[in-house]
Design a protein that fits this description.
Number of helices: 15
Number of strands: 0
CATH architecture of one domain: Alpha Horseshoe
CATH class of one domain: Mainly Alpha
Order of helices and strands: HHHHHHHHHHHHHHH
Strand content: under 5%
Structural class: mainly alpha
Length: about 270
């Protein structure tokens, strides 16, 4: 007889506790600037535990959702990270009907360490398989007041773009956010452009050229990493010319930059 979801949750949690150390728990809490409780298991060990059990059990859709939500419920980082790993491992079981649940998890994540896997691999997988059903949700997220939801609307295009999906849905959303000051938005735009540039550099160059004087340095440096060297140099020269002009104008002379979904935002963490 297959173990119950409650038994699987208990098994995973026991393994996470065994893998954790107090020192790593405190280090991770400070690094992520999180209010969650930490067990101190490494990201690698957490993912391995979750993936091993998901593979062993061969979870169907309902069991995948039940196990993930059971793990997620308490505000414990490693439990939630394991839930993300379960959803990633069984992503093909999920579809557009699961977007309300995934939106709730994204809103409760509050850190890139949970948001990025959910957005890029889980929602992104659904977007790859059911693009027409998912696009309205991603378009709505692109205008959300929560910058984590806006970030998610961008990262969900990573898998589709790698598989040859149209560039336009991402481009439209990125245009809405290009002038934002939030680090995690700037980094996400650059990240998606960087990955797209590996397979479709001409589209990335064509989109970025007229925007190089508006995009942030974070976005530009990420976006040009895998472009042909001549294109990369030309785009960065355009960006630096704008930056020099802004410095020459002096403090308070540049344009005011605001998020389209709310007030001026700021960088909150050092990594995304």
């Amino acid at each position: 007889m297959a173990p119950s979801v409650t038994a699987l949750v208990d098994e995973i949690v026991a393994l996470l506790v065994s893998a954790g150390t107090p020192g790593r728990a405190e280090q991770e809490r400070r690094y992520l600037k999180s209010d969650l409780y930490f067990l101190g298991a490494s990201h690698w060990e957490t993912g391995k535990i979750a993936r091993t059990i998901a593979k062993r059990e061969g979870l169907d859709h309902d069991a995948t959702v039940a196990l993930a939500t059971g793990l997620w419920a308490p505000p414990v980082f490693e439990r939630r990270a394991a839930a993300v790993a379960i959803l990633e491992a069984r992503a093909t079981q999920l579809g557009a009907d699961d977007l309300p649940l995934l939106e709730r998890l994204l809103r409760e994540s509050r850190t890139w360490a949970l948001v990025d896997g959910l957005a890029a691999n889980v929602v992104g997988g659904i977007a790859l398989r059911e693009p027409d059903a998912v696009r309205p949700t991603l378009d709505r997220w692109a205008g959300d007041a929560d910058f984590w939801m806006r970030r998610s609307s961008l990262l969900a295009e990573l898998l589709p773009l790698k598989s040859g999906a149209p560039f336009e849905p991402f481009a439209v959303r990125a245009d809405l956010m290009l002038s934002e000051t939030e680090f995690f938005i700037r980094k996400a735009i650059g990240w998606v452009l960087r990955e797209a540039g590996k397979r479709r550099p001409d589209q990335v160059v064509a989109w970025l050229t007229p925007r190089a004087t508006e995009a942030s340095g974070v976005t530009m440096r990420e976006a040009v990493k895998y472009l042909p060297s001549e294109d990369s140099a030309r785009l960065m020269a355009l960006y630096r010319a704008r930056a020099r002009g802004s410095r020459a104008a002096g403090p308070g002379r540049g344009p005011s930059v605001r998020s389209p979904a709310g007030p001026r935002t700021r960088r909150t963490h050092g990594r995304g």
